[in-house]
Structures are given as structure tokens and as C-alpha cells.
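#struct-pred

JT: dropping the chains for the assembly here, can someone run the whole complex?
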Amino acid sequence: MDIRYLKGVGEKRAAQLTRLGIRTVDDLLGFYPRDYVDYSHPYPVAGAPYDVKCVVRATVYGKNGGARIRGGRQMAKATAGDDTAGLILTYFNNPYALQKLEVGREYLFFGKVGGTFTAREMVNPVMLTVESAAASPLVPVYPQTEGVSSAYLAKCVRAAFAAAPDIEEPLPAALIEKYRLCGKAEALQKIHFPQSRQDVQAARRRLIFEELLALQLGLLLLRGREAAHTGAPMRPADLSPFWNALPFAPTGAQRRAAQEILADLGKKTPMNRLLQGDVGSGKTLVAAAGVYAAAQSGYQSVLMAPTEILAAQHADTLDRLLAPLGIRVALLTGSVKGAAKKAALRAIAAGEVELVVGTHAVLSAGVEFARLGFAVTDEQHRFGVRQRSLLAAKADHPHLLVMSATPIPRTLGLLMFGDLDISVLDELPPGRTPVKTYAITGKKRADMYGFVRRQLAAGRQAYIVCPVIDEGENDMQAVTTYYTDVAQPLLEHYRVGLMHGRLKAAEKAAVMDAFKAGALDVLVSTTVIEVGVDVPNANIIVIENAERYGLSALHQLRGRVGRGKGEAYCVLISDHATDAVKKRLSFLCHTNDGFEIAKFDLETRGPGDFFGSRQHGLPTLRIADLMADSRALYAAQKEALALVGADPALRSPGNAGLRRLAEELFSGDTALN
Ligand code: ADP
Ligand code: MG
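RK: done, full complex below.
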């Protein structure tokens, strides 16, 4: 049922709910509370802690009507208290709250207690009668957006329960019994309106299991290639011409990973391998070795990158590496158009190019390969699993390599990606010195620019990274104003370029080329340069509003420098340094090891953290947590394998609910941000 027709909703509210991803009554029931306010243990007024949200029990003594104050705001007050102390309740722009209070009656108020010791005050507290708190003491707190309060959402959910005739049970009875799970209808009731903590726990256990099972089933269904034979069995290739043509010696780790890939290419089953290596470890070269090997057996390869900038760069690098060995490279992105595109498509279909490098444009229907055998995705966390399987569908079970700088603990990787094999580049090319990293506040910005100027004077180049394009609501540095107001004046005699996501592809390419060629000294950019960009002469990166990023993202950004000779520097600027932020940034100043950083990120859970969906390409989970719920994940994997083993496409009527669950979970898996 469409959410618009739910009692108490209507068009305007429906639009707000849509923004939360709620379109139907089912969506609403699946919109779980983020937390609960527990009204069962209220504080007496004098005992309430200051400045933290808590529940206070007090009787209302009197009310004074509303008064208009500055800025057209309305203010109203009530006096309340208990035998320990008095409490002033102040309401801004909320006349109804005051109206609802009855003098002489006792209530529970939720909010922060402020004011002074002798005149305690709560501003706009949430209120509950003692009776309703006794009936349901745990009140749900929903993830909110503007204009949609938790109380309103709770009301909608109640209406949804009243409207939803029967809640279907998607799990087979055998599983419910085996894991002693509660039923779906009960779980939904308990997650939204629990009577106790035990209710919450039981509901969570059930819903987490269900979600992880859907995840594992979805992965198995998408893969659906367990015992498949590859259409691209290859002869063992001799890599020595490839190694010999390189301008440098490969690292031991690169050789090892290339050998592992070669061994897979010779097998009858398709390769499904993750190449994991820290930023700068040289993953591109390993992919190139695979491309070379595939070409020796007469197969084409494709490499898919998440951004046009990166695709263009890869095409460039790989062409330089492979063209002398007779491998022809074609670039295919959104900005390759018209005659050039036609020519490229024709050459690909005719087998006249051995390697296609591109963005997700390579997935489009018009791209037909003559003989695709080896498919690579770079920065795999930027792609959904579905996109990987679309790539695989371009040929008859081609060999797949996914590359990532995100270190996933091996066991978790296996759970997340099933039968994926893993190669690790645990060695950096020689001569790399760790990037010297500093965390400073904006007060030191001018000094820091002095340092940047000295590097530029010595012939090096710099990146300056800012978070957003236009002025936001808060004080984030907008990249365009930063460019004109800060960077240009401070770098007066230098050539400063501007790069952000809203530039046209051709403009981006032009800026990037200029920077690469040394025609620009400085690149002021948003995080579009986050992944993969490789300009060895750049040796300093300045990151404004560093508190906005997860550590892994900062580490990725930092990886843009330290790719060439000499010292490299990373400066993290933040004026919002809470203790937690300081600790995180300081950690980054002291380590260059991506694995350590990911571990720390896991432990501290900063913004855009490691297990955010951007980092692993899996669908966003609503309730389960891959790390915290790893036991349930194991169980779900076991059951998913058994279910798919018995019914490979989940077509039997008894599995219809499960199939739908998996499909729903993966339905959003198309976004390429
Ligand atoms: P990443 O693993 O982050 O994708 P890249 O493949 O972009 O790393 O490689 C980073 C840089 O290191 C590139 O400039 C590349 O040419 C260089 N490089 C790769 N392998 C070696 C090597 N064995 N010796 C020296 N430089 C290397
Ligand atoms: Mg790379």
C-alpha cells in the first residue's frame, strides 16, 4: 500500500517520508528505530544530570501563556517540580505542548536539564504521561530528517500496523525453529513498540538474521556460477617479455600476485579473485600482467574504473606499458562520443583491441566484445556487486579480478564475498618514504601555505582538497570560494587549477592533463581525486575540514602523494577538533599502514567508516552490522549455502519469501556515487 493512503499521512507528508526512503506501508514497517528512550527509570528533578538527555519525573504547578519574543519567535513557560527541586519548562514555538499539560498532573519529561542549580530548566522537552509510560516504557527514536519527528513516525507506524492486514513470514518454519527466532509480525511489533529490553533483543536477533540471510542469498544468486566452466580457458603465458619491458623491477608481491592470477587463468573454472593492496602498492601493474597473459591466449580484457579521471589515467598508463608489447588499448567513457565511440565499439567487436579501459560505460548494451576473457574492476568498493556481475555477463564466465585498497579481514572477506580468492600486495615499491603527516588548525593555514610555496618553488606540485562545491549551511570550505579567496591570493605567482565533480568530463580531463603535464602547480579539488590519481611529481596534499572524512578515505587521499622521489607531505586542517577527532587525526599522523588504519577505523567508527557501504560495495544494511554481528553472519552463510544448494534459484514456493527478501535488499544496488 502506498504511504499516501495511510491514515494521517497525505501528499505533503508522503513527500517527506519518501525522502527517508519510505514509499509503502512495508517500507515504513521496515524503518526501524535507531534507539529507544527508556521512561522506566526517571530521575527526580534534583538528581538529574546536567546537559545530557535524560528522563525526569515532575508535577506541573502552573503555566503562563505564550509571549512573542525577538525574531517573531514564541515562548511559553510552565513551572513544575517534585519534592527535591523545582523545574522550569520552556517551550519555543510550540504552543500545543504547553496546552497539553494539565496543572497538578505528573509527567515524564525527556530532554537536557540546564539552567542553574537553583533554577533548573528544560527547553522543549518531550512529554509523556505517567500512565502511557507505564503501558509502554520504551519509546522508539527513529532516524530523523527535517520535518519528520520521531513521534510522528511512531504514529505512522501504529497506523501502518492497523492498516497492514497480514504480515507475511518470509523465513521457512524450520529456520525459525532451529534458531529460536520470533515470527516476522512479532518482531516488527517488538522492534517498534517494545515492552522491555528483552523484546528489543528478540526482535533484533530475528531481523538481523533475516537481513544477513537475505544478503548471503542475494550474493549467491547474483553469482550463480559455482560449478560453471569458463568460456576462456587460457594457455600458460610467459610473463618475461612483460616484466622485461618495465622501466622498473616488479616487487616480489607483484610477481607473486601475477603468478596467482596466471594459475587461475589456466583453470577450467572462472577466476574470482580480490587483489588487495595498500594505496600505491602497484595494483595496476598486476592487472596489466593479467591483460598481457590473456592477450597471449587471444583473449580481450576490460578494466572498469569508478571515475572518468581514473579511467583516462589507466588507459594512458596501460597504453604506455602494453602498446610496445602489441596490445591495443581503447578508452570508453561517457565522454567518448560520436565517431570516436563508433570506431571504438567496432574495433572492440571485431577483436581489434585487446584491452578496453572505461567507466561503467563499458557495461552498456552497445559494448560487445569479440572474445572477452579477463575482466577487472578497480577500486571495487565503488561498485556494487551487481555491477560486477553485469561485467561478468559480457562474456561466457570470464575471469574476474577486483582490486581494492580497502583491507578486509580475510575471514570477513570470505563471508562477504563468498568464494572470492584473495591476493595481497603487502610490499610497497622500493624508495617510498612514508608521507609526513601533520594535523593543524586553520590558524596555521597561512604558515602552512608558506611551506607549500617553498615546495612549489622547488618544482614540486600540490593538491588542496576541500569538501563541497557550493556554500553549505555550515562553515565548510566551499571549493570554488576557497579557490578564489584563499588559494589564489596565497599562491599568487603560481598556476592554480580547480577541479570538482560538477565540471564537464572534458573540462575535468583538461585540468587533470594540465596538472599531469606540469602546466599547473596546484590543484584545488574536491574528493574526485580520492581514488587512484597518480601524478608522481606532486608531493604535498593539504586536506581542509579533515574531520569530515573517515580515516580510510583520508589515507586514500594521502596516497595521492609519496608516489615519486623525495619527501612527501600531508597536512590535515581541522577547526572542529573534538577529542575524538584529534585522536583520529593524530593516529593518521603516526601511521602509514592502511591495515592499521582500517583497524582503527573499525574500532572508532568515524564518518564514512570502513563498514559503510561505500567501502565494500554491498547493499546498505538496515539493522545488521557485518562486524558486530559476525556470528549471525556465519550462521546465515551456512543456511544460505544449504538453501541454494537444494534450490539453486530459490524457485520453490516455500522459498518465494526468501527470494523476495534477497531481491529487495539488492534492488538499490545500482548507485555509482
Ligand atoms: P595502487 O595500488 O594504489 O593502484 P598504482 O598501481 O597506481 O598503485 O601504482 C602507484 C605508482 O607506483 C605508479 O606510479 C606506478 O607506476 C608505480 N609502481 C608500481 N609498481 C612499481 C615498482 N615495482 N617499482 C616502482 N614503481 C612502481
Ligand atoms: Mg589504483
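JT: nice. Confidence is low (pLDDT under 50) at residues 606-613, 669-673. Residues 283-284, 378, 532 surround magnesium ion (ligand 2) (CB under 6 Å).
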